[in-house]
Design a protein that fits this description.
single chain, 399 residues, alpha+beta, Helix Hairpins, Adenine-n6-DNA-methyltransferase TaqI, Chain A, domain 2, 11 helices, elongated
Length: 399
Amino acid sequence: MKRDVAQSGYKQTEIGLIPEGWEVRSLEKVCTMKSGMTITSDRINEFADYPCFGGNGLRGFTNSHTHEGNFALIGRQGALCGNIVKATGKFFASEHAIVVTPRRGVAINWLAIVLEKMNLNQYSESSAQPGLSVTKLQPLEIVFPIETKEQEAIAEALSDADGLIEALSELIAKKRQIKQGAMQDLLTGKKRLAGFEKPWKTQCLGDEAILKARIGWQGLTTKEYLDTGDYFLVTGTEFLNGFIDWNECFCVEEIRYSQDKNIQLKSNDLLVTKDGTIGKIAFVEEMPKPATLNSGVFVIRPKNKAFSPRFFYYLLRSEVFDKFLSQLSAGSTINHLYQKDFVTFKYELPSDEEEQIEIAKILTDMDTEISALETKLEKAKQIKQGMMQDLLSGKVRLI
């Protein structure tokens, strides 16, 4: 049964209020820490018996082991310095991992969670090559529930939260794969929708669409980017998952918005970045307020309903457009998408506009489902963070 700390009793310590029956202890009093052993790369492969862990987690497998049992590993060096991995059974710990062995009365699952929350990377002794030392970690203090069963209850609750997060992550990955397969089938005509039999047609972007961007003589500079205002400025850096994150947009004065009607955005506009990271796509739905473009973004609009904007949005996010961009680069690094090249983009699409609309609807429904799952995942992560804060501090008790 959960009890608030005010009901269960608490005491004042040097680090604040903690429950009765808890203590403030240094890490060296709850565990031992020791770096792993040196191993050469030729001893690591994918066909050996025992996992080998290093500073960045699993390195591969090897034919010998250094430990057997339940441990926590801390990345001592590398990109994931301070990363926590739980290791069970027989395994090899390399010199780039710190092996954490719990002392008697300490639940390793609980301790691994505590170490994760401590964000140990902040104690790295080098900025160029991150590295942790055992001598620096051992004196760090934590709040320690004396009863092992309480440690295990905390670990179990947080493990359940991790299980939900993992399940949602796997489901999202699966849904994305399904959507990717649907795009490959539906956007190429490989799979046709029931009731549609008209042949597909080939179009060239320059013949069927109007492309506009802010031209150079307008001279918009970053000094004119405002944090607030009545007119949004879309630069491409605000593109998020195929749409515009309006909360990240700068603003401009009315004179900059009014000077070019061709780039005043409207619903169903398609946007493509042409500078820096080229080929990023965004679809314009409802706008919180009027918006215009900087010089790094194209707006695309069909001529005479030549294509459904939503269908074309998915086409631009598919392998069809990726291949076009790859052919443009021809092995070189390009950082600008020129209009003279972009207008040569050729593509196939249903000659029946209704089929385009139905294909786009199917893919939109998939996106909506994935987005809902991502929102649920973020909420689960936030709940877990709140649980960690409450349970590891003793603010909320489970027993």
